[in-house]
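Backbone-to-sequence.
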Protein backbone atom coordinates (compact mmCIF):
# COMPACT_ATOMS: atom_id res chain seq x y z
CA UNK A 1 0.00 0.00 0.00
CA UNK A 2 2.89 2.36 0.70
CA UNK A 3 4.12 2.26 -2.90
CA UNK A 4 0.63 3.13 -4.18
CA UNK A 5 0.47 6.24 -2.00
CA UNK A 6 3.92 7.22 -3.19
CA UNK A 7 2.93 6.74 -6.85
CA UNK A 8 -0.26 8.74 -6.36
CA UNK A 9 1.71 11.61 -4.77
CA UNK A 10 4.24 11.47 -7.61
CA UNK A 11 1.57 11.66 -10.30
CA UNK A 12 -0.16 14.50 -8.49
CA UNK A 13 3.07 16.47 -8.23
CA UNK A 14 3.88 15.96 -11.91
CA UNK A 15 0.38 17.08 -12.81
CA UNK A 16 1.21 20.43 -11.19
CA UNK A 17 4.22 20.84 -13.46
CA UNK A 18 6.74 20.28 -10.68
CA UNK A 19 10.16 18.67 -10.89
CA UNK A 20 11.01 16.20 -8.15
CA UNK A 21 14.30 16.05 -6.34
CA UNK A 22 17.16 13.84 -7.40
CA UNK A 23 19.30 13.40 -4.25
CA UNK A 24 22.89 14.30 -5.07
CA UNK A 25 25.52 11.67 -4.49
CA UNK A 26 28.65 12.71 -2.63
CA UNK A 27 30.48 13.08 -5.94
CA UNK A 28 27.65 15.09 -7.50
CA UNK A 29 27.50 17.36 -4.48
CA UNK A 30 31.22 18.07 -4.53
CA UNK A 31 31.04 18.93 -8.20
CA UNK A 32 27.89 21.02 -7.89
CA UNK A 33 28.91 23.07 -4.88
CA UNK A 34 32.43 23.91 -6.07
CA UNK A 35 34.14 25.87 -4.81
CA UNK A 36 32.86 25.38 -1.28
CA UNK A 37 31.20 28.64 -0.19
CA UNK A 38 33.08 30.51 2.53
CA UNK A 39 31.15 30.67 5.77
CA UNK A 40 31.21 33.82 7.86
CA UNK A 41 29.15 35.40 10.62
CA UNK A 42 27.87 38.81 9.54
CA UNK A 43 26.36 40.49 12.56
CA UNK A 44 24.90 43.83 13.58
CA UNK A 45 24.50 45.24 17.07
CA UNK A 46 21.12 46.83 17.91
CA UNK A 47 21.45 48.87 21.10
CA UNK A 48 18.46 49.88 23.22
CA UNK A 49 20.32 51.82 25.94
CA UNK A 50 19.98 55.54 25.35
CA UNK A 51 17.63 54.68 22.48
CA UNK A 52 20.70 54.39 20.27
CA UNK A 53 19.00 52.08 17.77
CA UNK A 54 15.79 50.41 18.87
CA UNK A 55 13.42 51.67 20.09
CA UNK A 56 14.51 55.03 18.67
CA UNK A 57 12.68 56.92 21.42
CA UNK A 58 10.86 55.99 24.64
CA UNK A 59 7.10 55.77 24.84
CA UNK A 60 6.34 55.26 21.15
CA UNK A 61 3.17 53.44 20.03
CA UNK A 62 3.71 49.69 19.76
CA UNK A 63 3.13 49.56 16.00
CA UNK A 64 5.76 52.25 15.45
CA UNK A 65 8.27 50.28 17.55
CA UNK A 66 7.48 47.16 15.55
CA UNK A 67 7.76 48.98 12.22
CA UNK A 68 11.16 50.40 13.17
CA UNK A 69 12.46 46.97 14.04
CA UNK A 70 11.18 45.41 10.85
CA UNK A 71 12.90 48.16 8.90
CA UNK A 72 16.22 47.48 10.61
CA UNK A 73 15.96 43.76 9.90
CA UNK A 74 15.05 44.39 6.29
CA UNK A 75 18.12 46.59 6.03
CA UNK A 76 20.20 43.81 7.55
CA UNK A 77 18.91 41.36 4.97
CA UNK A 78 19.67 43.75 2.11
CA UNK A 79 23.36 43.70 3.05
CA UNK A 80 23.13 39.89 3.51
CA UNK A 81 23.80 39.90 7.24
CA UNK A 82 22.96 36.65 9.02
CA UNK A 83 22.83 37.63 12.72
CA UNK A 84 21.59 40.42 14.97
CA UNK A 85 22.67 41.11 18.55
CA UNK A 86 19.77 42.89 20.23
CA UNK A 87 20.12 44.55 23.65
CA UNK A 88 17.20 43.25 25.72
CA UNK A 89 18.41 44.16 29.24
CA UNK A 90 20.13 47.55 29.02
CA UNK A 91 20.04 48.80 32.64
CA UNK A 92 18.86 45.94 34.86
CA UNK A 93 15.44 46.31 33.27
CA UNK A 94 13.72 44.40 30.50
CA UNK A 95 12.34 44.66 26.99
CA UNK A 96 10.16 41.66 27.79
CA UNK A 97 7.77 40.66 30.59
CA UNK A 98 9.87 39.57 33.56
CA UNK A 99 8.94 38.43 37.02
CA UNK A 100 12.37 39.61 38.21
CA UNK A 101 12.93 43.07 36.73
CA UNK A 102 10.78 46.03 35.66
CA UNK A 103 9.99 47.05 32.10
CA UNK A 104 12.66 49.27 30.59
CA UNK A 105 12.07 53.00 30.46
CA UNK A 106 14.00 53.04 27.17
CA UNK A 107 10.92 51.27 25.80
CA UNK A 108 7.95 52.77 27.62
CA UNK A 109 9.27 56.10 28.89
CA UNK A 110 8.57 55.03 32.46
CA UNK A 111 10.44 52.21 34.14
CA UNK A 112 8.02 49.49 35.16
CA UNK A 113 5.22 50.59 32.83
CA UNK A 114 3.73 47.62 30.94
CA UNK A 115 3.59 48.29 27.18
CA UNK A 116 0.92 45.62 26.73
CA UNK A 117 2.92 43.40 24.39
CA UNK A 118 6.11 41.34 24.31
CA UNK A 119 8.85 43.05 22.24
CA UNK A 120 11.32 40.19 22.72
CA UNK A 121 8.97 37.51 21.43
CA UNK A 122 8.22 39.76 18.46
CA UNK A 123 11.90 40.52 17.88
CA UNK A 124 12.93 36.86 17.86
CA UNK A 125 10.06 35.87 15.59
CA UNK A 126 10.79 38.62 13.04
CA UNK A 127 14.52 37.85 13.00
CA UNK A 128 13.90 34.15 12.42
CA UNK A 129 11.36 34.91 9.69
CA UNK A 130 14.28 36.50 7.82
CA UNK A 131 16.59 33.68 8.90
CA UNK A 132 18.72 36.00 11.01
CA UNK A 133 20.27 34.52 14.15
CA UNK A 134 18.97 36.30 17.24
CA UNK A 135 21.45 36.87 20.07
CA UNK A 136 19.96 38.37 23.24
CA UNK A 137 22.38 41.01 24.51
CA UNK A 138 22.50 41.52 28.29
CA UNK A 139 24.45 43.96 30.41
CA UNK A 140 25.08 42.00 33.62
CA UNK A 141 25.86 44.70 36.19
CA UNK A 142 24.73 48.15 35.03
CA UNK A 143 21.69 49.33 37.00
CA UNK A 144 21.34 52.94 35.87
CA UNK A 145 23.19 55.63 33.93
CA UNK A 146 22.20 58.10 36.67
CA UNK A 147 23.15 57.89 40.33
CA UNK A 148 19.88 58.38 42.25
CA UNK A 149 18.48 55.03 43.35
CA UNK A 150 15.13 56.61 44.27
CA UNK A 151 14.52 57.35 40.57
CA UNK A 152 14.29 53.64 39.83
CA UNK A 153 10.93 51.88 39.72
CA UNK A 154 9.65 51.12 43.25
CA UNK A 155 9.86 47.37 42.61
CA UNK A 156 13.33 47.50 41.09
CA UNK A 157 15.56 44.87 42.75
CA UNK A 158 18.20 47.55 43.33
CA UNK A 159 15.76 49.46 45.53
CA UNK A 160 14.66 46.29 47.31
CA UNK A 161 18.32 45.30 47.86
CA UNK A 162 20.37 48.50 48.18
CA UNK A 163 23.17 46.40 49.70
CA UNK A 164 23.70 44.97 46.21
CA UNK A 165 24.39 48.37 44.66
CA UNK A 166 27.51 50.46 44.11
CA UNK A 167 27.39 54.13 43.14
CA UNK A 168 30.31 55.00 40.90
CA UNK A 169 30.83 57.90 38.56
CA UNK A 170 27.44 59.05 37.33
CA UNK A 171 25.79 55.64 37.54
CA UNK A 172 24.65 52.72 39.66
CA UNK A 173 25.98 49.16 39.36
CA UNK A 174 25.29 45.81 40.90
CA UNK A 175 28.29 44.76 42.99
CA UNK A 176 29.93 41.71 41.34
CA UNK A 177 31.41 40.80 44.74
CA UNK A 178 28.03 39.99 46.29
CA UNK A 179 27.13 36.31 45.71
CA UNK A 180 23.41 37.12 45.69
CA UNK A 181 24.00 39.45 42.75
CA UNK A 182 25.65 36.69 40.74
CA UNK A 183 22.79 34.30 41.49
CA UNK A 184 20.23 36.93 40.55
CA UNK A 185 21.87 37.85 37.23
CA UNK A 186 22.14 34.18 36.28
CA UNK A 187 18.46 33.66 37.16
CA UNK A 188 17.38 36.62 35.02
CA UNK A 189 19.30 35.43 31.96
CA UNK A 190 18.45 31.74 32.22
CA UNK A 191 14.79 32.72 32.47
CA UNK A 192 15.08 34.29 29.01
CA UNK A 193 16.95 31.27 27.65
CA UNK A 194 14.16 28.97 28.77
CA UNK A 195 11.22 31.11 27.64
CA UNK A 196 12.40 32.41 24.28
CA UNK A 197 13.74 30.78 21.11
CA UNK A 198 16.97 32.78 21.11
CA UNK A 199 20.14 31.58 19.40
CA UNK A 200 22.62 33.11 21.82
CA UNK A 201 23.33 35.02 25.02
CA UNK A 202 25.67 37.95 24.51
CA UNK A 203 27.67 40.21 26.84
CA UNK A 204 29.51 43.32 25.73
CA UNK A 205 32.53 44.94 27.44
CA UNK A 206 30.95 46.14 30.70
CA UNK A 207 31.89 44.11 33.78
CA UNK A 208 33.36 46.12 36.64
CA UNK A 209 32.79 49.74 35.53
CA UNK A 210 35.35 51.59 33.45
CA UNK A 211 37.65 53.65 35.69
CA UNK A 212 36.61 57.20 36.52
CA UNK A 213 39.45 59.62 37.12
CA UNK A 214 39.86 60.57 40.79
CA UNK A 215 37.36 58.01 42.10
CA UNK A 216 37.75 54.67 43.82
CA UNK A 217 35.19 51.89 43.64
CA UNK A 218 33.98 51.36 47.21
CA UNK A 219 33.47 47.60 47.53
CA UNK A 220 35.27 47.34 50.89
CA UNK A 221 32.34 45.80 52.72
CA UNK A 222 31.84 43.02 50.15
CA UNK A 223 35.58 42.35 50.07
CA UNK A 224 35.65 41.89 53.85
CA UNK A 225 32.61 39.62 53.80
CA UNK A 226 33.42 37.51 50.74
CA UNK A 227 37.08 38.02 49.87
CA UNK A 228 38.63 35.48 52.23
CA UNK A 229 41.55 33.78 50.54
CA UNK A 230 42.23 36.73 48.24
CA UNK A 231 44.88 39.03 49.73
CA UNK A 232 44.87 40.82 46.39
CA UNK A 233 41.57 42.63 45.79
CA UNK A 234 42.12 42.65 42.05
CA UNK A 235 42.30 38.84 41.99
CA UNK A 236 39.12 38.68 44.05
CA UNK A 237 37.32 40.97 41.62
CA UNK A 238 38.43 38.86 38.66
CA UNK A 239 37.27 35.74 40.46
CA UNK A 240 33.86 37.30 40.97
CA UNK A 241 33.47 37.86 37.23
CA UNK A 242 34.92 34.43 36.45
CA UNK A 243 32.26 32.84 38.64
CA UNK A 244 29.47 34.64 36.80
CA UNK A 245 30.80 33.68 33.37
CA UNK A 246 31.51 30.04 34.21
CA UNK A 247 28.31 29.55 36.19
CA UNK A 248 26.13 31.13 33.54
CA UNK A 249 27.81 29.12 30.78
CA UNK A 250 26.97 25.87 32.56
CA UNK A 251 23.36 26.89 33.17
CA UNK A 252 22.79 27.93 29.56
CA UNK A 253 24.08 24.60 28.25
CA UNK A 254 22.01 22.70 30.79
CA UNK A 255 18.87 24.53 29.67
CA UNK A 256 19.44 24.55 25.89
CA UNK A 257 22.72 23.13 24.55
CA UNK A 258 22.29 24.85 21.18
CA UNK A 259 22.19 28.38 22.66
CA UNK A 260 25.62 29.98 22.33
CA UNK A 261 27.26 32.21 24.93
CA UNK A 262 29.72 34.85 23.84
CA UNK A 263 31.41 38.05 24.98
CA UNK A 264 32.53 41.18 23.14
CA UNK A 265 35.29 42.63 25.33
CA UNK A 266 37.38 45.74 25.05
CA UNK A 267 40.00 44.49 22.60
CA UNK A 268 43.10 44.86 24.78
CA UNK A 269 43.38 42.07 27.32
CA UNK A 270 46.75 43.40 28.56
CA UNK A 271 49.46 45.47 26.94
CA UNK A 272 52.73 43.73 26.20
CA UNK A 273 54.60 46.07 28.53
CA UNK A 274 52.33 44.98 31.40
CA UNK A 275 52.46 41.28 30.53
CA UNK A 276 54.83 39.78 27.98
CA UNK A 277 52.02 37.52 26.75
CA UNK A 278 49.79 40.51 26.06
CA UNK A 279 49.29 42.31 22.77
CA UNK A 280 51.76 44.73 21.17
CA UNK A 281 49.66 47.70 22.24
CA UNK A 282 49.82 50.66 24.58
CA UNK A 283 46.15 51.22 25.34
CA UNK A 284 45.08 53.27 28.34
CA UNK A 285 42.61 50.56 29.43
CA UNK A 286 43.41 46.90 29.95
CA UNK A 287 40.48 44.54 30.39
CA UNK A 288 42.31 42.28 32.84
CA UNK A 289 43.47 45.08 35.15
CA UNK A 290 40.78 47.75 34.82
CA UNK A 291 37.53 45.85 34.17
CA UNK A 292 38.65 42.69 36.02
CA UNK A 293 37.59 40.53 33.08
CA UNK A 294 40.09 37.79 32.27
CA UNK A 295 38.80 37.14 28.78
CA UNK A 296 41.80 35.03 27.85
CA UNK A 297 41.02 32.65 30.72
CA UNK A 298 37.44 32.32 29.54
CA UNK A 299 38.72 31.21 26.13
CA UNK A 300 41.20 28.73 27.57
CA UNK A 301 38.59 27.29 29.93
CA UNK A 302 36.06 27.21 27.06
CA UNK A 303 33.43 28.91 29.18
CA UNK A 304 32.41 30.93 26.14
CA UNK A 305 31.54 29.71 22.66
CA UNK A 306 32.89 32.78 20.88
CA UNK A 307 34.75 35.99 21.59
CA UNK A 308 34.16 39.20 19.65
CA UNK A 309 36.82 41.75 20.71
CA UNK A 310 35.98 45.35 19.92
CA UNK A 311 38.80 46.06 17.48
CA UNK A 312 37.71 49.66 17.06
CA UNK A 313 40.95 51.25 15.83
CA UNK A 314 42.35 51.86 12.39
CA UNK A 315 45.20 49.99 10.77
CA UNK A 316 48.46 51.44 12.04
CA UNK A 317 46.99 53.21 15.08
CA UNK A 318 50.05 53.53 17.36
CA UNK A 319 48.40 52.60 20.67
CA UNK A 320 46.26 49.75 19.34
CA UNK A 321 46.89 48.71 15.76
CA UNK A 322 44.01 46.76 14.21
CA UNK A 323 46.44 44.38 12.50
CA UNK A 324 48.33 43.58 15.71
CA UNK A 325 45.12 42.96 17.64
CA UNK A 326 43.74 40.62 14.99
CA UNK A 327 46.99 38.68 15.13
CA UNK A 328 46.93 38.46 18.95
CA UNK A 329 43.32 37.30 19.20
CA UNK A 330 43.70 34.79 16.38
CA UNK A 331 46.59 33.18 18.25
CA UNK A 332 44.58 33.13 21.48
CA UNK A 333 41.65 31.19 20.02
CA UNK A 334 43.75 28.84 17.88
CA UNK A 335 43.06 25.23 18.78
CA UNK A 336 40.55 26.07 21.53
CA UNK A 337 37.30 25.54 19.64
CA UNK A 338 36.21 29.06 20.63
CA UNK A 339 35.08 31.06 17.60
CA UNK A 340 36.56 34.49 16.88
CA UNK A 341 34.40 37.30 15.48
CA UNK A 342 35.75 40.83 15.24
CA UNK A 343 33.83 43.86 16.49
CA UNK A 344 34.06 46.50 13.75
CA UNK A 345 33.81 50.25 14.37
CA UNK A 346 31.22 51.16 11.76
CA UNK A 347 30.37 54.20 13.89
CA UNK A 348 33.80 55.65 13.12
CA UNK A 349 33.44 55.54 9.33
CA UNK A 350 33.52 59.10 8.01
CA UNK A 351 34.56 60.50 11.39
CA UNK A 352 36.93 63.45 11.30
CA UNK A 353 38.74 62.21 14.43
CA UNK A 354 41.53 60.88 12.21
CA UNK A 355 42.21 60.95 8.48
CA UNK A 356 42.14 57.16 8.31
CA UNK A 357 38.42 57.08 9.08
CA UNK A 358 37.66 59.52 6.27
CA UNK A 359 39.22 57.07 3.83
CA UNK A 360 36.41 54.97 2.29
CA UNK A 361 38.86 52.06 1.96
CA UNK A 362 39.76 51.79 5.67
CA UNK A 363 36.92 49.47 6.69
CA UNK A 364 36.97 47.36 3.48
CA UNK A 365 40.73 47.03 3.97
CA UNK A 366 40.20 45.79 7.52
CA UNK A 367 37.66 43.24 6.34
CA UNK A 368 39.88 41.92 3.54
CA UNK A 369 42.85 41.62 5.88
CA UNK A 370 41.03 39.89 8.72
CA UNK A 371 38.93 37.63 6.49
CA UNK A 372 42.17 36.10 5.21
CA UNK A 373 43.06 34.99 8.76
CA UNK A 374 41.85 31.39 9.23
CA UNK A 375 40.74 31.88 12.83
CA UNK A 376 38.50 34.86 12.05
CA UNK A 377 34.97 33.50 11.68
CA UNK A 378 33.20 36.77 10.92
CA UNK A 379 32.48 40.34 11.95
CA UNK A 380 29.92 42.24 14.04
CA UNK A 381 29.32 45.93 13.34
CA UNK A 382 28.62 48.59 15.93
CA UNK A 383 26.03 49.63 15.28
CA UNK A 384 23.18 48.95 12.85
CA UNK A 385 22.41 52.59 12.01
CA UNK A 386 26.07 53.29 11.35
CA UNK A 387 26.03 50.66 8.60
CA UNK A 388 22.61 51.31 7.10
CA UNK A 389 23.25 55.07 6.91
CA UNK A 390 25.80 54.23 4.19
CA UNK A 391 28.76 56.32 5.46
CA UNK A 392 31.31 56.81 2.66
CA UNK A 393 29.25 54.30 0.67
CA UNK A 394 30.08 51.44 3.04
CA UNK A 395 26.60 49.89 3.04
CA UNK A 396 26.74 49.74 -0.74
CA UNK A 397 30.22 48.20 -0.62
CA UNK A 398 28.83 45.44 1.58
CA UNK A 399 25.77 44.66 -0.53
CA UNK A 400 27.40 45.09 -3.96
CA UNK A 401 30.88 43.74 -3.32
CA UNK A 402 32.06 42.40 0.04
CA UNK A 403 28.80 40.59 0.86
CA UNK A 404 27.50 40.23 -2.69
CA UNK A 405 26.56 36.59 -2.03
CA UNK A 406 24.92 35.13 1.08
CA UNK A 407 26.90 33.26 3.70
CA UNK A 408 26.17 30.65 6.31
CA UNK A 409 27.32 31.15 9.88
CA UNK A 410 30.33 28.86 10.46
CA UNK A 411 29.53 25.68 12.43
CA UNK A 412 30.20 26.12 16.13
CA UNK A 413 32.20 23.26 17.55
CA UNK A 414 30.70 23.75 21.02
CA UNK A 415 27.14 23.33 19.71
CA UNK A 416 26.12 19.69 19.24
CA UNK A 417 24.98 18.62 15.81
CA UNK A 418 23.05 15.46 16.83
CA UNK A 419 24.10 13.86 13.57
CA UNK A 420 24.62 15.46 10.21
CA UNK A 421 21.36 16.75 8.66
CA UNK A 422 19.93 14.62 5.86
CA UNK A 423 19.51 15.82 2.30
CA UNK A 424 16.02 17.34 2.07
CA UNK A 425 13.61 16.49 -0.69
CA UNK A 426 12.54 19.37 -2.86
CA UNK A 427 10.82 20.20 -6.10
CA UNK A 428 10.68 23.33 -8.19
CA UNK A 429 7.74 24.67 -10.16
CA UNK A 430 7.14 27.70 -12.31
CA UNK A 431 5.46 30.47 -10.38
CA UNK A 432 4.45 34.02 -11.10
CA UNK A 433 7.57 36.12 -10.84
CA UNK A 434 10.05 33.28 -10.49
CA UNK A 435 10.71 29.65 -9.69
CA UNK A 436 9.19 28.29 -6.51
CA UNK A 437 11.36 25.79 -4.67
CA UNK A 438 9.36 23.73 -2.17
CA UNK A 439 11.41 21.94 0.46
CA UNK A 440 10.34 18.98 2.56
CA UNK A 441 12.29 17.75 5.59
CA UNK A 442 13.82 14.33 5.93
CA UNK A 443 15.47 12.85 9.01
CA UNK A 444 16.26 15.08 11.95
CA UNK A 445 14.64 18.54 12.22
CA UNK A 446 16.49 21.37 10.50
CA UNK A 447 16.62 25.01 11.52
CA UNK A 448 16.84 26.33 7.99
CA UNK A 449 17.81 25.52 4.42
CA UNK A 450 20.39 26.89 2.01
CA UNK A 451 19.31 27.15 -1.61
CA UNK A 452 21.92 26.99 -4.39
CA UNK A 453 21.52 27.37 -8.16
CA UNK A 454 23.60 26.28 -11.11
CA UNK A 455 23.38 26.63 -14.88
CA UNK A 456 24.10 23.53 -16.99
CA UNK A 457 26.98 21.73 -15.26
CA UNK A 458 28.63 24.78 -13.73
CA UNK A 459 29.35 25.38 -10.08
CA UNK A 460 26.38 26.22 -7.90
CA UNK A 461 26.22 29.52 -6.03
CA UNK A 462 24.11 30.20 -2.96
CA UNK A 463 21.00 32.23 -3.64
CA UNK A 464 19.74 32.59 -0.09
CA UNK A 465 18.73 30.82 3.08
CA UNK A 466 15.17 30.21 4.22
CA UNK A 467 13.91 29.37 7.70
CA UNK A 468 12.10 26.10 8.29
CA UNK A 469 8.42 26.51 9.09
CA UNK A 470 6.57 24.86 11.97
CA UNK A 471 6.36 21.61 9.99
CA UNK A 472 10.04 21.64 9.10
CA UNK A 473 9.51 22.56 5.45
CA UNK A 474 10.07 25.80 3.56
CA UNK A 475 9.28 27.64 0.34
CA UNK A 476 11.80 29.73 -1.57
CA UNK A 477 11.00 31.82 -4.65
CA UNK A 478 13.84 32.55 -7.05
CA UNK A 479 12.91 35.89 -8.59
CA UNK A 480 16.26 36.37 -10.30
CA UNK A 481 15.82 33.51 -12.81
CA UNK A 482 16.45 34.74 -16.36
CA UNK A 483 14.01 33.78 -19.15
CA UNK A 484 15.21 30.99 -21.38
CA UNK A 485 17.96 29.84 -18.99
CA UNK A 486 17.95 26.29 -17.60
CA UNK A 487 18.68 25.97 -13.89
CA UNK A 488 19.24 23.19 -11.41
CA UNK A 489 18.64 23.89 -7.72
CA UNK A 490 20.42 22.28 -4.80
CA UNK A 491 19.09 22.46 -1.26
CA UNK A 492 20.91 21.64 1.97
CA UNK A 493 19.53 21.35 5.49
CA UNK A 494 21.29 23.23 8.32
CA UNK A 495 20.79 22.62 12.05
CA UNK A 496 20.92 25.04 15.01
CA UNK A 497 24.70 24.68 15.25
CA UNK A 498 25.03 25.55 11.52
CA UNK A 499 26.11 22.05 10.58
CA UNK A 500 25.18 21.66 6.92
CA UNK A 501 24.13 18.34 5.41
CA UNK A 502 24.42 16.99 1.86
CA UNK A 503 22.45 18.51 -0.98
CA UNK A 504 19.25 17.36 -2.58
CA UNK A 505 19.23 18.28 -6.27
CA UNK A 506 16.28 19.05 -8.55
CA UNK A 507 15.96 18.23 -12.20
CA UNK A 508 16.76 21.10 -14.55
CA UNK A 509 14.01 23.59 -15.26
CA UNK A 510 13.97 26.37 -17.86
CA UNK A 511 12.66 29.79 -16.98
Amino acid sequence: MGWRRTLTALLGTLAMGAVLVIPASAADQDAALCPAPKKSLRGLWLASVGNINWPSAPGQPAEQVRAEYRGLLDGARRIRANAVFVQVRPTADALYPSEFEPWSHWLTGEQGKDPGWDPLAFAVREAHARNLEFHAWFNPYRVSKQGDITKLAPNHPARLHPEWVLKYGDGLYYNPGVPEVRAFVEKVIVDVVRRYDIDGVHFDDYFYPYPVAGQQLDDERAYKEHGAGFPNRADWRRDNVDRLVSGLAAKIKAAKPWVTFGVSPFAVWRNGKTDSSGSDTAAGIETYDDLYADTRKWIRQRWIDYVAPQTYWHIGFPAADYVKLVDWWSREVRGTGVALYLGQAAYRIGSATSPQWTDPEEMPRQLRLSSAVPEVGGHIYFQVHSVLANPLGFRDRLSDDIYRTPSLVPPRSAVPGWGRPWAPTAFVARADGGHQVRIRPTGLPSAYYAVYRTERRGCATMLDTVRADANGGAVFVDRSARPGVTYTYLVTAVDRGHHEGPAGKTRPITA
